[in-house]
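Both lines are given unchanged directly below:

***
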Amino acid sequence: NQTMYTYISSNIHTYPVSTATAGVGAVSESMKTPPGLHEIKIGGGAAPGTVFTGRRQTGQICEIITNETRSTNDFVTTRILWLSGLEPGVNSGFGHDTFRRCIYIHGTQEEGFIGKPVSHGCIRMKNQDIIVIYDELPSGTLVLIAEHP
């Protein structure tokens, strides 16, 4: 199972997540989840299930699928935490830039796949979990992505 750990108010919290089907890597167009140290740059508040396109709310609320059924879309839902790499040559700079690749931590329509590698590079979370994370973590919060904790 894939897991995200947060350290908030002196407490460690764990959340099931999904990362890239293609694994960990930072090369542009690789469809991999970038490793290393990042910070959160922006986010957005919306109703659970709200669909985002280009980091903007579309006005659409999608049905959340809680079993292992693939949707016809790869929706970014509910909240967006846009990641910006802090390690030149690893996750920032030409050919490796997490921010330019638009890699997010975000909600997903396909909650039934949380815990398995199914994304195109982003970190997917259950919609209620991303609301908690978004509300607790300010812009500039550091995020470390590693294959093994």
